[in-house]
Here is the input.
Amino acid sequence: MFLKNPYISILKLKSSVVDLSVVAVTCTVLGTWDYRAAIGIIAGILIHGACDIINDIYDVEIDKICKPNGAIASGQISEKNAWKYMFLLISAALIISFNLSFILFTCLLTGIIVGGIMYSHPSFRLKDKPGMAMANMGLCFALESIGIWSIYSPVNIESLMVAAYIFILVFSLTFMKDFKDVAGDINSLPLLLGIRKAAKVCSALAILPLIPILYLIVKYNYSYLSAILYIALIAGCIRILMGNPVAHGHRFKNWMILALTVPNFSMFFDVIILSLYRYIM
Here is the structure.
């Protein structure tokens, strides 16, 4: 019942697990985490939700076709109330982030401009430009990583390396989400190239994040489990791509989210288990 509340469902919390995984891998490389990371996650999720609301407001007509049960498209939340709710979320997130780190505050504010306004506003509509839309999302999550890093340590080459990994991961995989919304999209990779060609491009791009994953494993002596899990999840994505990704769009998006997050969580728990082992021994 709680999750069905329109003010909760509009936040699309399932996708916010990506925010959690970004913080997890950032703290893994940092080698430290505490309650501030949890608070930073909350700020990131609030910004993510606010940007989704901005998108839903501007996409209300499209959503009446693609997502008729959406909170705004279905009329459960009026556009006026959606704007108020969005400003409330942004205000809370910026207040939280400012008290943690000015760099985190700046990164999240930039995320609102890039991932909210420029992604969805009719004057920019980067979401209608394949490649630009995915780079936009990759940049937002990379900025979140830099912001979390700044809570604990000065931003340096190492932090930028982690941000680059996150950018590559998000950019390479989020093309997959377009197959679910083909019916209502104006411009997307499947519409530009056709379903078959777009599926082949997505399959090739999905291999790219394996390079930085292996780099992190070798550099920081993590186990190869995260790479194995990524390969297994990408194999599942490619299997759907080679079948009917449009008909299985929702299941396909779930596989995409797993591929975006599970390897990061794997590295995080790998470090925790290794630390516990060393402590016990």
